[in-house]
Design goal:
By secondary structure, the protein is of the alpha+beta class. It has helices at residues 16-24, 49-52, 62-68, 79-96, 121-136, 148-158, 171-175, 188-196, 202-206, 210-217, 219-228, 258-278, 310-324, 346-349, 355-371; strands at 8-13, 33-36, 44-47, 73-75, 100-104, 107-111, 140-145, 163-165, 244-255, 281-292, 297-307, 331-339, 342-343. Helix content is 41%, strand content 21%. α4 runs antiparallel to α5 (121-136).
Length: 389
């Protein structure tokens, strides 16, 4: 049964990367700005609202964006700076509200259930919005409703620098006229399938029997039906900063087999790289751990540009291992750890990668989620049967 009369706000930093760049270079204000890889095969990570008027959007190939707006200003991006401002806003929200969830580097959910008895929740969120503007210099948009889904959708309807409240009981009427593409979780393939069936609005989607959607989309059909009907019972998960993601392996027999050791580094890096992407995280620091047969233990770390791409992480991890392993002695244990974690996904981590690379990682991770992370692995990370501990 759905929880009644919750008060859940969604706060979104408007065009976050661009807004940070405007603080650094006010002369960019009012101009079409693109954040991302500057090469012909680069990808747009973010863009200003002026650029969006030309049909440009995130994840678009930079070459296409350049054709749509030849006078756009391209900036490679500075994740260190973006993270600094994200942390500043996080601290402001932490100091202002009783319970919040940080869902990405620039998005937050706030649970104010019960606070409505003391003061208006919309007024309270307005005060938080103003505080973020004054202390961080960043514009925000927020929406208030009875659940996370409605607030998320509503925010996107009133950007930029907007605010809206969807009263309890009006969730379905708010969603009804919207395109099915506005519902979170409906990707291009599902949207194409629904529109091909003549299902273009959320109202039409909500009227389809749940059994029919189950037959059409499997278990996702039930969740889609609930979303179309404005139902979302998911709680606001209290925010806690995750410090690291790591893995290590103690061998059943000490070894000096370099081929095997390198394959272990690849396998473990790929394993926690998938975990990193599954949690929508990026890492800015890699550490390699090595323990010799005499139990002496050493580590070596390196700060890197924020990423969650296996090809970058494996390269850096392998390089660190080469530098760390400086004696011809049997090895008992190796480990890989990612630290300096921040929220982020494919688009914002791959400033210098191509659309093909993004599509490849999305396809690989989709297979791993469906069949298990060991179903698809790099050949260089596969261990021989006689090496398994």
């Amino acid at each position: 049964m759905q929880v009644l009369n919750r008060h859940i706000a969604h706060l979104d930093l408007d065009s976050f990367y661009v807004s940070v760049e405007l603080l650094r270079s006010p002369k960019l204000r009012g101009k079409p700005v693109l954040i991302g890889g500057s090469g012909d095969r680069g990808v747009v990570a973010s863009c200003s609202y002026e650029a969006r008027k030309f049909g440009i959007h995130s994840a678009m190939p930079m070459k296409v964006a350049g054709r749509l707006c030849s006078h756009a200003i391209i900036i490679n991006g500075d994740m260190e700076m973006y993270m600094k401002y994200s942390s500043l806003v996080t601290d402001i929200i932490k100091d202002s509200v009783p319970l919040f969830e940080k869902s990405s580097i620039d998005e937050f959910y706030v649970d104010m259930t019960g606070m409505e008895r003391f003061f208006g929740c919309m007024k309270f969120m307005g005060a938080v919005k103003e505080r973020v503007r004054k202390e961080a210099g960043l514009p925000t948009t927020y929406a208030l409703s009875s659940n996370k889904l409605i607030s998320k959708v509503a925010v996107n309807e009133v950007k930029p620098n907007g605010q809206i409240e969807i009263p309890f009981g009006e969730e379905k009427s708010f969603l009804s006229p919207l395109s099915v593409t506005k519902i979170p979780g409906i990707g291009k393939k599902t949207a194409f399938l629904l529109i091909k069936m003549g299902v273009e609005t959320v109202k039409t989607l909500s009227e389809i029997p749940v059994e029919m959607l189950q037959n059409l989309l499997g278990k996702n059909g039930t969740e889609l039906w609930q979303r179309a009907n404005g139902i979302d019972e998911s709680p606001v998960i209290p925010y806690h900063e995750q410090k690291s993601i790591s893995t290590e392996n103690t061998f059943s027999q000490d070894t000096i087999d370099m081929n095997f050791l390198h394959s272990e580094i690849v396998r473990m890096t790929e394993k926690i790289g998938f975990e990193l992407r599954s949690q929508d995280k990026l890492t800015g620091c890699i550490t390699i751990k090595l323990r010799y047969s005499n139990f002496e233990t050493f580590t070596k770390q390196k700060t890197i540009p924020y990423t969650n791409s296996d090809h970058v992480l494996i390269r850096e991890a392998s390089d660190l291992f080469e530098k760390l392993y400086d004696r011809r002695m049997l090895i008992r244990l190796v480990g890989v750890r990612f630290t300096n974690l921040i929220p982020g996904n494919y688009q914002i981590s791959l400033f210098d990668d191509t659309q093909e690379t993004i599509n490849l990682y999305q396809a690989i991770d989709s297979v791993k989620r469906r069949f298990g992370e060991n179903f698809l692995m790099k050949a260089s990370g596969m261990r021989r049967k006689d090496d398994l501990s």
